[in-house]
Write a structure and sequence with these properties.
- It is a single chain.
- This protein is 66% helix and 0% strand.
- With 342 residues, it is mainly alpha-helical.
- It has one domain.
- α1 packs across α11 (251-263), α2 (40-59) runs parallel beside α9 and α5 packs across α7 (151-173).
């Protein structure tokens, strides 16, 4: 039985979105190896500078249409997202790549919880249930209570909060702004902050040697986990629903654990795997819990490809809306998942 054109397009789009989560998940062990060779900020500014150059080519003449307000918003959002990467990368030096993958995914739980005090949007029952699942999963994954986490776990936990703040910023600040142009400004801002920090606090601002592992890390994080991810999300996410996109994006921490075991030789106990899956369950619960006026109640994506916030592109949209963005070249910046910049 042949597929209808609409269903075939949706399946193709969802497959490509799934490939994005593979690249996102692979970056955790890859970055962990990279920062063992060069200082954290040195690595970050090089990867973001390369990604910014490629995104500038994609944005092209759209950059001229941003205006002062668009550039200012991009700088603000880029600064928040830079803090997320800063916490995450320093955390990777001090915890396992698998833990970092699961903990970063908690941003989807923080988004609805922080939306109340910051945007006047009360958290749903699903957000509360998801938080409980996530906290229990955190305890099982790390083997300690939230107040007894190791330094690396705490840093990555802080990263997930900044990712959530970035998602909320996208929700509040991106109306009427071109997604590709805004993406360039955010990534370029991160490159500038990382370079400034590296110049001020680190012994080198350029890798003294380009070992194969380091080259791989820069290419995977800049080209595939950022530019390719952004292109796929902005082009294809519009062809599925926010709920289905959210489900796909929760594959990221699973792939992070798989790559950590495969590439980095890490080992997770059965209890830790259960904890990681509980965190994923918590993110799914927070995102997919039925809403009274769900955007996708009719089973279709919004025309611009944007979803709710959080992970469906939204967000954490990261750049991601949690998911991000939207449409074929979306004329405006739909929620976009920050994880896209992994």
């Amino acid at each position: 039985m042949s597929l209808s054109p609409t269903r075939g397009r949706r399946l193709r789009a969802e497959f490509l979105l799934a490939t994005v989560t593979v690249f996102w998940g692979s970056t955790f062990p890859v970055v962990k190896d990279a920062v063992a060779q060069v200082p954290v900020l040195c690595f970050l500014w090089v990867r973001f500078a390369l990604a910014a150059l490629l995104l500038a080519a994609l944005a092209g003449p759209r950059l001229a249409g941003l205006g002062c307000r668009g550039w200012t918003r991009g700088v603000v959002l880029g600064t928040v997202l830079f803090l997320a990467y800063l916490f995450q990368t320093f955390g990777l030096e001090r915890t396992s790549a698998a833990n970092a993958g699961f903990l970063t995914g908690l941003n989807v739980v923080w988004v609805p919880l922080l939306a109340g005090p910051l945007l006047g949007k009360r958290p749903s029952a699903g957000a509360r249930v998801g938080m409980v699942c996530a906290v229990v999963g955190l305890w099982l994954l790390t083997g300690s209570t939230p107040w007894g986490l190791g330094p690396g776990d705490l840093l990555v936990l802080g990263c997930s909060v900044f990712v959530a703040l970035h998602v909320l910023g996208l929700d509040a600040l991106t109306d009427g702004t071109d997604a590709r142009a805004l993406a360039f400004v955010q990534v370029a801002t991160m490159a500038v902050w990382a370079w400034a920090g590296s110049a001020a606090f680190e012994p080198v601002t350029w890798p003294p040697a380009w070992a194969p592992d380091l080259v791989t890390a820069v290419v995977v994080t800049a080209v595939f986990a950022t530019v390719y991810a952004f292109w796929v999300m902005t082009t294809y996410q519009r062809y599925t629903t926010p709920a289905r996109a959210a489900l796909i994006y929760t594959l990221e921490p699973v792939f992070a654990a798989v790559f950590s075991v495969w590439l980095a030789g890490e080992r997770l106990s059965a209890t830790a795997w259960v904890g990681g899956l509980l965190i994923v369950a918590g993110t799914l619960t927070a995102e997919l819990w039925p809403q009274p006026n769900a955007e996708d109640a009719q089973g279709g994506a919004r025309p611009d490809g944007a979803g709710g916030w959080g992970r469906t592109p939204p967000g954490s949209g990261d750049f991601g809306t949690p998911a991000p963005p939207g449409g074929s070249p979306a004329p405006t910046a739909a929620p976009w998942r920050p994880d896209a910049l992994r």
